[in-house]
Structures are given as structure tokens and as C-alpha cells.
């Protein structure tokens, strides 16, 4: 890995791949132009967020995000995703056809359609009560390891924004990423291991990626880490 793979602070320079898959249909274009701005977390909101505050990084199709929101109406949830098709998938579940510009939206949901690291830089110290990283892109090739959200250089900025005692929940079905998680958390003192399981813990909601992994014969692993 070369120097341009990292920022001056030693943080990986890029954590995500493509932003768009198939060409967007008219409905999807309206969701991005009319609905997304109504839910987008502003920089000002990020700098002075409400409490309790949870963050999900890389929400995929959004089913886990919506399950969290329904089960915890007392929490403000920020859901981060750069992939436009994933954003459209979540937004299409929130508003009916024709309601993109005016249909009511969940008052405690905010979306962050940018690199999650910029959000981390905006958040105040000790502002997050919980962090979710559910089945992230594993970047399995060695040369792409620098793009993984779980990374030694990412632990300090994440520890800064998490309150003491706050949970970071991680799940992945990829064996390489599973080993990587264990390696990255070994020997550090910012996060304390709470649990690690090969079965989805009680109270965790399923995701589409999890179902695909299990159907393909892969065994997910689930961790809870607590901010020291």
C-alpha cells in the first residue's frame, strides 16, 4: 500500500466502491431529488445532535435501519449509505408513489449519503450511544484491506464520538473480515469485548445480506464491543 492510500492522519483514504448500480428509474430519481433532502442530516445537526443517538454505517437496502427505527422510537437514528440504489430502496419503503415531496417521514430518522468519516469528523466528542456495522463490504483482496471500515486507524476517531459504555455492534459472514476484526481489536484498549457469537443474538434484526449468506452456506459472526 502506498502513501496515497491514506490520509495524513493514517486513516484509509477510501472506504467504499461504486455509488450507483443499475440506471435509476424515474421514481428513484424523484426519491433522491425530493425525498432524500428532507431526511438528510445537515452539518449543523451533526455538530449539535440530539440524544440518544445511534449510527448505522452502510445500511444496504435499509431493512435493518427501519426495524431499528420501529423498535426504538425514542432514539434518533442516523443511517449512512453512499450507494444510490440502496438509498432508493430505503426511501421507497417510506413514501408512496407520488408522495416523494410531501408524504410524512419518520421524525427521528436522518440519512447521511456521504462518506461516513466526514460525519464522524462533524460529531462532537461522546455523542453516539450506539454504532452498527452490519455485513459491510469485506474488500477480500489484500490490496483492498485499506478500504475496510474496521481498521486500526479508524478506532481512535470512532472512540472519540462514542460515549463511554456505548456499544459497537458488528456482523459479517466473510471469513477474511471475521479474522480481520479479531486482528484489529487485539491489543487495543479503546474497546472492550462484550460478546462474539456465531448465532444472531436476541434483539438483533435480520438483514437481506445475512439471509443471502446463510443460504449460500456461510456462517455469520456477531460481535458487541463496548467503548472503554
Walk me through this protein's architecture.
With 228 residues, the chain is of the alpha/beta class. The chain has a single domain, classed as 3-Layer(aba) Sandwich (Rossmann fold). 32% of the residues lie in helices and 20% in strands. It is built from eight helices and seven strands. It has helices at residues 26-39, 43-47, 63-71, 84-94, 116-122, 155-161, 175-185, 208-215, and strands at residues 53-57, 76-80, 109-112, 128-134, 162-172, 191-197, 221-227. The chain has a seven-stranded mixed β-sheet with strand order 3-2-1-4-5-7-6, with helices on both faces. α3 links the parallel β1 and β2 (76-80). It is globular and about 50 Å long.
Task: Record the SSE blueprint.
Blueprint: H1 26-39, H2 43-47, E1 53-57, H3 63-71, E2 76-80, H4 84-94, E3 109-112, H5 116-122, E4 128-134, H6 155-161, E5 162-172, H7 175-185, E6 191-197, H8 208-215, E7 221-227
Parallel strand pairs: 1-2, 1-4, 2-3, 4-5
Antiparallel strand pairs: 5-7, 6-7
Amino acid at each position: 500500500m502506498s502513501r496515497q492510500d491514506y490520509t495524513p492522519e493514517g486513516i484509509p483514504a477510501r472506504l467504499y466502491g461504486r455509488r450507483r448500480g443499475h440506471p435509476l428509474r424515474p421514481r428513484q430519481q424523484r426519491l433522491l431529488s425530493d425525498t432524500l433532502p428532507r431526511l438528510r442530516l445537515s452539518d449543523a445537526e451533526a455538530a449539535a445532535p440530539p440524544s440518544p443517538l445511534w449510527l448505522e454505517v452502510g445500511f444496504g437496502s435499509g431493512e435493518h435501519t427501519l426495524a431499528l427505527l420501529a423498535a426504538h422510537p425514542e432514539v434518533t437514528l442516523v443511517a449512512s449509505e453512499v450507494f444510490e440504489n440502496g438509498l432508493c430502496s430505503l426511501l421507497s419503503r417510506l413514501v408512496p408513489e407520488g408522495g416523494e415531496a410531501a408524504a410524512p417521514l419518520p421524525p427521528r430518522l436522518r440519512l447521511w449519503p456521504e462518506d461516513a468519516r466526514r460525519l464522524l469528523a462533524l460529531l462532537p466528542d461522546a455523542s453516539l450511544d450506539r454504532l452498527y456495522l452490519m455485513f459491510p463490504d469485506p474488500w477480500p483482496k489484500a490490496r483492498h484491506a485499506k478500504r475496510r471500515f474496521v481498521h486500526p486507524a479508524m478506532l481512535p476517531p470512532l472512540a472519540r464520538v462514542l460515549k463511554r459504555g456505548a456499544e459497537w455492534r458488528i456482523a459479517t459472514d466473510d471469513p477474511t473480515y471475521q479474522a480481520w476484526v479479531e486482528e484489529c481489536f487485539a491489543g487495543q484498549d479503546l474497546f472492550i469485548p462484550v460478546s462474539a457469537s456465531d448465532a444472531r443474538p436476541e434483539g438483533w434484526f435480520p438483514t437481506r445480506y445475512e439471509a443471502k449468506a446463510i443460504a449460500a452456506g456461510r456462517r455469520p459472526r456477531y460481535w458487541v464491543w463496548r467503548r472503554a
